[in-house]
Amino acid sequence: MKRFYFEKERPAIESFHVPLSRRASVRDVVSIGFGLLVVSYLVVFYFISVTGTFIRDPMQIDISNMFLPPSIDHLFGTDFLGRDIFSRVVKGTEAFFIPGIISISVSTTFGLLFGIVSGFYPRYSSKIIFYVLNIIDSIPRIIFILIIIVLFNPSIYLIMTFVGISSIPKIASYIKAKVELLKNQRSIEAARALGLSQATIIFKHIVWLSSKPVLIIRATLGMGESILIETSLSYLGIGVQEPTPSWGNMVAMGKDFFFQGKIWLSTIPALVILFTIMGLYLLGDGLNSIYNEKVSR
Amino acid sequence: MGQLAQVKDLQVYFYDQRDKRFIRAVEDMSFSIDEGSVLGVVGESGCGKTITALSMMGLVEAEPGIIGGRFFFKLPQKDVKFVEDYLFRNTWIEDGQKGERLYNLFCGLEKYISYDENPYTIIKDSEKWLRRNNRIMEYVRGKNISMIFQNPGCSLNPFITIGTQFERTIRRFDKETSREQARERAIELLRSVRLYQPETIMSMYPGSLSVGMAQRIIIAIALCAHPRLLIADEPTIGLDTTNMYKIIELLEKLRAEMGLTLMLISHNIRIVSTIATGIVVMYAGIVVECGSKKDVIRGKSRTNHPYTEALVSSVPSDADIKRGKKLQEIPGSVRNNKREMNCCPFLERCAYAVGKVRKKCESRCPELVELSSGHRIRCFLFYT
Amino acid sequence: MIRFVKVFFREALNMLLLIIGVTALLYLLFNIMPGFFPGKGEGLFGYTQLLRKLFTFQFGTSIITGRDINGIVFPAFRNTIVLTVGSIFFSIVIAVPIGIFSAYRRFKTYSWPLVIFSYIMSTIPVFYLGYLVLYIVSRYTGVLPIYYPQGSGRGNPLLSFMLPILVLGFGNESISEIVRLISTELERVMHSDYAVASKARGESVLWSSVNEGIMIPLISIVFSKIPFIIGGAVIVEHVFNWPGMGRLAFQATLDRDLPLLIVITFLSVLCVRGGMLLKELALLYINPHEK
Question: Does the CA dihedral C130-C221-C95-C183 come out positive or negative?
Fold first, then answer.
């Protein structure tokens, strides 16, 4: 026998300021909670890594202690050079933290910029802008990065900038749609009729207020994607190089030891990646569901 | 002709999670439909007419939904065969005249409901009940009972042509039909609803149809499996007056030609009275008057419920009757089989609730009392 | 019918313009490269030569490595197409039933485990998943399901064919997205007016008229995931040694072979835009009203 419950109602109005639904379901709360947990440990790890306050040095080679399985001493065990995996995982956040932030900054700022401009000048500028953006959009991201790598032999920061660039088209098109929608609402006409001179500023505020949730969601998802890309590139060997730890190259180094039964070298970083990305995606989805926007990946 | 269907003591409640209380959609609803007759159900928006129809069809999905009542329907033998072993088990009544059985389509409802005395909640295993009900209703919907809704434009799948729509429905009921046969049948049906040039219509999309045409097409689709009962929920809303009468006329013709039984729901008592044989007047989820058309339509204060009188005597514009008043939320807790209603629901709007009788009106809700054969009223004015 | 043709031409034109744009960009980049490459083309003339080469699919030989591009790219292209299409198919086959199940069981207690499962499977980094699968399979069957050249007498052709498709099917994140999409859209469509009306007229509970409603978003999503899937293919091909364009691209990167990369990009863009074209046509077929 089950207790009845009422079906979740979704506010059907596309309103001006995006409303927060009063009833976030349990699922949303769990998603967001989990996501915030992930974000917090990322920040903590990054902080530890940058300040160098490790309990065990991630770079210290200790041949006598190779291949130790996870224990209290070494939370995640040691790798093939006796280095503590846990500290390496912590230091691994350095590889994607700043680059990831660069990536999402680039994509959101330029996405916003191009989106707004296209929204307000839909005839000419929009067509030109979107032509260029579609070109970028048509190239699969990894291939785009491979080309950049061949051309410029870039550092991870530059790579991530280009990753950000490759995300611009989607954001720009979303923002443009938003702007076009809002442009025609009565409130804007009313504002104009009142002779509000700083019309541009008003529009910026309007666009900002209305797009903020989308941008936040995009940023969260974008961070997840950046982590995935950075780890993938490091796995392939064209991202962060040894001995600097990155979760990707740890998986790569560790995979050879699978057959010897030492699965933790590879599995643990992979699980950390899984956990982190899942947390960020859940955060994005939870926010998505609360704000009732439909942002796709 | 005997009874075709009978609804007894239908209770439908919904639960508002936000305000944490019950909304009584339908309470203590009983009526019966004879074969070949036209039952009109009138009342304002939100009085529970649509919910009654939806619960008959098993389409109520909100929680907790149907919590009590029985719905007897005369199923033909071939359909009974399919569901008998699974379901009915002694839940039928005999139709006196012909000795045929009417089966309770809500059988087993009690098994899924329980009442919690403290703090007065209804517990219902809705999903299991819905599944069980769906299994029965799969043999009933379309083949025995069919329903059409208001707003005909929305009742058609906008992505497929009318022809495809017909084809799918026809083939669903008779898997052997070939495309050609289905098409012919569809054209035949379109002709029977007085649509000329059916071939053109078959290849059109719902978006390009006028409302009148759409409504006729929907009626045609609803009738393609020869159901015995057609429930029409406000079929005339949104149509202009000429069209309104035309549709009603059409329904009457179909009834005569096909031996259809009709349950016509509307807020417009004028429209209903043109073809109805019996009328049920609802207010706030309960029946306030029911009887044959002659009895109800008289609309005099001596013989009818004040509400009916108000409906009939004034020549209402739609705006008047349909005041857009939402369902009367009657906060109440439900006790075991005893409803608790504080007063007559029509109290505030009743012109006759004055003087001595008002005390009774305020103290409790009146029972349904039989005035003369078949004519029942729920009002203290008629208590002897 | 004529609308099909109109849409086709419009999209094809679009596609053409975009490809020209892509090649222009690539050519530009090629030329402004910090002078490592000998023999850059002569300005505009070089560009038209490039275009001609590309559009006639005669890619010539690579300036950098001297490899015959034509010879290696076409089989690789075909292999990657197989991988990509196979994995899309696989994702749909897995994700759609989960989505449908999750929508019909409105009381989500049933579908939670499945949703969580599909989420986890979608966020496993594909390079790890690939290797894990490789490890498990070779542990239990004693065979390493990596691709070996034809006729070398080693390897298990069936496994080495199925596994990469499986892995890419999971690893391209489409599964969780499709599941979510199907369950939300299906729930929305199931309760829309026409679905309830057709149910009231007797159409079956499961199949009543909802297919069109969900097909449209499904097709849009699937086709728009193509660039992503090609990207994922790069990694999967690396893990399984699958002789496709992704592995080729990776080798090209290591060799700094830009012409090969340009050709690969060209073909990928062709796929992506071609996919968009197909998507438009498919949508037009299902939904005759162009909104």
Answer: positive
Regions of chain A with pLDDT less than 50: 1-22, 297
DSSP sequence for A225-269:
HHHHHHHHHHHHTSSSPTTS--HHHHHHHHHTTGGGT-THHHHHH
CA nearest neighbour of A208 among A109, A64, A61: A109
C232 chain-A contacts, CB cut-off 8 A:
142
- Whether omega for the bond prior to residue C113 falls within 30 degrees of 0, making it cis, is no
> What confidence score (pLDDT) does residue A161 get?
92
**Chain A residues near residue B63 by CB distance under 8 angstroms:** 4-7
For C205, which of B134, B146, B218 is closest by C-beta distance? B134
Tokens coding A12? 């059907």
The structure tokens listed for B165 are 């729509």
Cβ proximity of C60 and C51 under 8 Å: no
Cα B66 to Cα B68: distance, rounded to the nearest angstrom: 6
Residues in Cβ contact with C190 at an 8 Å cutoff, skipping those fewer than 6 apart: C103, C210
- Kindly tell me the burial class for residue C99, based on how many C-beta atoms sit within 10 Å of its own C-beta (0-12, 13-18, 19 or more): buried
Give the position of tokens 């926010």. A287
Q: With bands split at pLDDT 50, 70 and 90, how would you rate the model's confidence at C205?
A: low
State the pairing for strand pair B369-372/B64-73: unpaired
Q: Which position has the token pair 């196979």?
A: C86
Q: Pairing mode, if any, of strands B261-266 and B3-16?
A: unpaired
Distance CA A108, CA A225 (A): 14
Say whether pLDDT at C243 is over 50: yes
CA A266/CA A258 separation, integer angstroms:
8
pLDDT at A107: 92
Separation of alpha carbons B60 and B40, rounded Å:
21
Task: Sort out which chain A residues have CB atoms less than 8 A from B121's CB and list them.
Answer: 3
Alpha-carbon separation of residue B275 from A219, A255, C34 (angstroms): 64, 81, 89
**Whether B160 and C107 lie within 8 Å, measured CB to CB:** no
Residue of C nearest to B172 (CA): C203
Cα A16 to the center of its chain, rounded Å: 26
CA-to-CA dists, residue A180 to A115, B110, C54, C226, angstroms: 10, 55, 38, 28
Please name which of C58, C29, C44, C54 lies closest in space to residue C269, comparing C-alpha atoms: C54
Mean pLDDT of the residues in chain C? 77
State the smallest CA–CA distance between residue B15 and chain A in angstroms.
6
Between chains, do B15 and A7 touch, taking CB under 8 Å as contact? Answer: no
Q: Using a CB–CB cutoff of 8 Å, tell me whether B62 touches chain A.
A: yes
Whether the CB-CB separation of A210 and A182 falls below 8 Å is answered with: yes
The candidate with the shortest Cα–Cα distance to A143, out of C36, C229, C174, C169, is C229
By C-alpha distance, which of A173, A181, A237 is closest to A207?
A181
pTM (two decimals): 0.77
Per-residue pLDDT reduced to its tens digit, C62-89: 666 667 777 788 888 888 888 888 899 9
- Calculate the CA C200 to chain-centre distance: 40
Check residue B96 and give its pLDDT.
Answer: 63
The position carrying tokens 């001297």 is C66
Contact between B42 and B279 (Cβ < 8 Å): yes
Cα angle B293, B299, B304 (rounded to 5 degrees) comes to 90
d(CA C26, CA C265): 9
Sheet of B21-34, strand order = B21-34, B3-16, B64-73, B101-104, B92-94
Mind listing the pLDDT tens digit for each residue in C146-193? 665 555 555 566 777 788 888 888 877 788 888 888 888 888 888 888
As a whole number of angstroms, the distance between CA C24 and CA B74 comes to 75
Q: Are B33 and B26 in contact (CB under 8 A)?
A: no
Q: What gap in Å lies between CA A89 and CA A208, rounded to an integer?
A: 37
pLDDT in tens, B65-113: 777 888 888 887 777 776 666 666 666 777 666 667 777 788 777 777 7
Token pair for A272: 């950390």
